[in-house]
Amino acid sequence: MKQEIKLVTSDKKEQYNGNEIRWRSDSGNMLHVSHEVRFEVEKVNAQLHSLWRYRHMIPIQNDDHIVSFEEGFTPLLKTDLWGKNVFVKQEQLFSTGSYKDRGATVLMSKAKELGVKHVVQDSSGNAGCAVAAYAAAAGIGCDIYVPASTSPAKLVQIQKYGATLKLIEGTREDTARAALQAAAQHYYASHCWNPFFFEGTKTFAYEVCEQLKWKAPDVVVIPAGNGTLLIGCYIGFKELLESGIIDKMPKLIAVQAQNCAPLYHAFHHTNEKIILQPTVAEGIAIAQPIRAAQMIEAVKDSEGDFIVVTEDEIREAWNYCCSKGFYIEPTSAATIAGVKKYMEEKESGLIVSLFTGHGLKAQLY
Ligand SMILES: *Cc1c(COP(=O)(O)O)cnc(C)c1O
C-alpha cells in the first residue's frame, strides 16, 4: 500500500519525507503526519476484529511491518450512568490494559518499517507499558523512563515485557527531560512528540462512528493529559467529516483534574495563579503538555470545552463505576466524573465516553 507520507510542522514551513527516521523538525518543532487519504466505508475490512480494519487510513507502507495483537474495535457499551444513557467504550480491555495500545501498534509498526533497533520513551506509566509490549513483539530494544512515584503494577509490567526501566526522581517533566536527552541517541517513541502515535489513537473516532452506524455522536467526553486521545479523536473525526462520512464534528469535552489543570486555565483565560497539587489521576497529571496549543485548537474547533473535576469527584466516580462492575483505574474515573458534571450542567444529546485504563493497574485504598 503505497501512500505519500509527509511530516510537516504546524506552519508547514518545514516538511520531510515520512520515511525518514525523525520525530521532530530540524529546528526542534513538533511534526504532524500529512497524507492524502480519503476514508471509504467500502474499504473497511470487516473481517478484521481490530483497528487494522481501517488499514487504508494508517500510514504504514508495507503490511509485513505491522506489529499487532489484533487490538481495538473495543465494545461501545450503552450503559446507565447516574440515571442517563451514555455510550462507554471499553478501552480498559486492550492487551496492556489501556487505550495507549492504539498509538503503540501504529508507532511501533512505523519503527519497524524504519528499521529502528532501539527506542526510548517516557510516560506516567501506561504509554510505557504499551510501547514496551509492542517493542517486545517487534524485537526492538526499549528503555522506558517513568517518574519514581508511578504505580508499582505498571513498573512490574514494563519490566516483564523486557524493557529497561529508568526511574526518575522528581516531576513528570523531569522524566521527560531525561528521556529527551536519551533521544539524542535513539528513536524517540514518545506518545507526545512522535506524530505516528496519533495515527493510531485516531481509530477511536472511526470505531465510535462505525459502531453508531456511521453517525457522529453529539458529545465525546475524553481525558486531557498530554492529549493523545483528544488529538487522535480530533484527527479521526475530521477525516470522517472531510470524507463525507459524518456531517458534523462532535463537541469534544476534555476533562482535567482540578489539581493539575493548565489547559483548563489557558482555555478559559482564568487569571488564577496555577498551583499544582498531587492528584489520584496520575495518568493525566501533566503540568506542561507539549501539544497544548494543538489541544486547545481542537477543542475550540469542535465547539467543545475543558472542564475540571475535584479529587472527591474522582473518588466518587471510581467507587460508582466499580460498584457497577467496571473495574477501572482511578485516572479513568476522572473522565467519568467529567461525564457526570457535563450531564448535570448541559443538555447533552448522544454522549460517548470511555474507560481509559484497567483497574488492575492502579488502586486507591
Ligand atoms: C494516558 C492516559 C490518559 C490521558 O491521556 P493523555 O493522552 O495524556 O491525554 C487517561 N487515562 C489513562 C488510564 C491513561 O493511560
Tell me, briefly, the overall form: globular
Number of helices: 11
| Ligand names | pyridoxal-5'-phosphate
- Number of E-type strands: 13
The ordered string of helix (H) and strand (E) elements is EEEEEHEHEHEHEHHEHEHHEHHE
Helical coverage, percent range: 25-40%
The radius of gyration computed from the alpha-carbon positions, rounded to a whole number of angstroms, is 19 Å
End-to-end Cα distance: 50 Å
- Mind summarizing the main beta sheet? 6 strands, mixed
> Mean pLDDT across all residues, rounded?
95
Portion of residues in beta strands equals 15-25%
* Cross-sheet strand order for the largest sheet: 4-5-13-10-11-12
Enumerate the spans where pLDDT stays under 50 for 5 or more consecutive residues.
none
Task: Name the structural class.
Answer: alpha/beta
Give a structural overview:
The strands form three sheets. Strands 4-5-13-10-11-12 form a six-stranded mixed beta sheet, sandwiched between helices. It is of the alpha/beta class. A hairpin with a 6-residue loop joins β1 (5-8) and β2. The longest helix has 16 residues, at 330-345. Helices cover 33% and strands 17% of the residues. The protein has helices spanning 100-113, 126-138, 152-160, 172-182, 198-201, 203-211, 228-242, 262-267, 292-301, 311-323, 330-345, and strands at residues 5-8, 15-17, 32-35, 76-81, 84-89, 118-122, 141-147, 164-168, 187-188, 219-223, 251-257, 305-309, 351-354. It is globular, with a radius of gyration of 19 Å. The chain contains eleven helices and 13 strands. α1 runs parallel beside α2 (126-138).
